[in-house]
């Protein structure tokens, strides 16, 4: 398959308009040719805004467009499974916003549908595609910071005063764990190359916000006595950080999951008391994510993060939410290392 990968966008959600569509347009291997909304006027307005040639007043119409090869799904969490499976049944490759589903069983079903349809399915964690994470992993693997002792991640923001927020709907997969807790969890799994053995999470469930977890703090128990701690949620001051502690040094990532293209994505390395700034390219990680996806579709390159990774991440997220709701430690069944 040659040329650029032709995309359709399933909804005019803010993440699509503000980040993914601009990222696609700045990328090397992609072009956006259509967008759909259940409100035809919204679809047309967004298409005009971005110079997208096609617009549709229903998702079904977009999926019936033979020119569309890949679909990006930024719909509310509870709609991910349905529309990803429908898109794959229509022969479209799918980039689905995180979390990929509401449960690991749903994620398994989506992965099976991708395999049956012969299409590519990926979960949209853009930050993992930035080259700084390869640099961080290489520093860890080199032994510069010694033996790993802990990882701590944060992702918080305050949307407690917003009204009509889909993140406040429990049945729709609302809550801070699904929205932002998934980031430090994926980061820990990425950097360690392992799966946690147990999780314990304490959460603030707010009746005034649909009884979703507005804030949560957690411990992920990894093999070898290594603990990963995190806090996340939608009712605290903004931060998104990552700290990796070793016996000889520390890696600090001040903007771990949202890295503005114009300000770079630097991080800090401290070894034996000497702290240095590690500079990385000013680059759009949404563009990188989409180009990695396109290389798999167009050129057959292996997926960096295949669907089974999303299944495993959902397994941890499910356990975290169960732990918070039932107020107990949840032991996870072993899975093969990745």
Summarize, please.
With 338 residues, the chain is an alpha/beta fold. It has nine helices and 15 strands. Helix content is 35%, strand content 29%.
Notes on the structure:
This protein is of the alpha/beta class. Helices cover 35% and strands 29% of the residues. The protein has 9 helices and 15 strands. The strands form 2 sheets. It has a 9-stranded mixed sheet with strand order 14-13-12-11-7-10-9-8-15. Helix 2 (40-50) links the parallel strand 2 (30-36) and strand 3 (54-56). The protein is globular and about 55 Å long.
Fold blueprint:
Elements: E1 5-10, H1 14-26, E2 30-36, H2 40-50, E3 54-56, H3 59-63, E4 70-73, H4 80-89, E5 93-97, H5 104-117, E6 121-124, H6 131-142, E7 148-158, H7 176-192, E8 198-206, E9 212-222, E10 226-233, E11 235-246, E12 249-253, E13 267-271, E14 274-278, H8 285-299, H9 307-326, E15 330-331
Parallel strand pairs: 1-2, 1-4, 2-3, 4-5, 5-6, 7-10
Antiparallel strand pairs: 7-11, 8-9, 8-15, 9-10, 11-12, 12-13, 13-14
């Amino acid at each position: 398959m040659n040329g650029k990968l032709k995309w359709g966008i399933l909804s005019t959600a803010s993440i699509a308009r503000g980040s993914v569509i601009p990222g696609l347009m700045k990328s090397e291997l992609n072009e956006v040719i259509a967008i759909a909304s259940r409100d035809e006027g919204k679809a047309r307005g967004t298409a005009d805004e971005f110079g997208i040639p096609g617009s549709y007043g229903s998702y079904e119409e977009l999926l019936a467009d033979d020119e569309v090869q890949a679909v990006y799904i930024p719909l509310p969490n509870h709609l991910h499974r349905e529309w990803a499976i429908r898109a794959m049944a229509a022969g479209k490759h799918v980039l689905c916003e995180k979390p990929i589903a509401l449960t690991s069983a749903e994620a398994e079903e989506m992965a099976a549908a991708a395999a049956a349809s012969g299409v590519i399915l990926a979960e949209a964690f853009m930050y993992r595609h930035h080259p700084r994470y390869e640099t961080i992993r290489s520093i860890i693997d080199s032994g510069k910071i010694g033996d790993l002792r802990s990882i701590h991640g944060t992702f918080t923001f305050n949307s407690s005063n917003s009204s009509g927020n889909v993140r406040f709907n429990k049945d729709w997969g609302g809550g801070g764990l699904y929205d932002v807790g998934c980031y430090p969890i994926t980061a820990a799994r990425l950097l360690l190359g392992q799966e946690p053995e147990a999780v314990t999470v304490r959460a603030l469930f707010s009746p005034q916000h649909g009884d979703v977890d507005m804030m949560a703090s957690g411990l992920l128990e990894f093999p070898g006595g290594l603990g990963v701690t995190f806090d996340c949620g939608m009712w605290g001051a903004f931060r998104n950080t990552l700290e990796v502690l070793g016996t000889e040094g520390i890696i600090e990532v001040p903007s771990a999951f949202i890295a503005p293209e114009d300000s770079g994505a630097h991080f800090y390395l401290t070894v034996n008391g000497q702290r240095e700034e590690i500079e990385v390219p000013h680059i759009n990680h949404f563009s990188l994510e989409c180009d990695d996806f396109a290389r798999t579709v167009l050129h057959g390159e292996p997926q960096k993060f295949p669907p089974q990774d999303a299944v495993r991440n959902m397994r941890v997220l499910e356990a975290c939410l169960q732990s918070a709701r039932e107020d107990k430690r949840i032991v996870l069944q072993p899975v093969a290392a990745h």
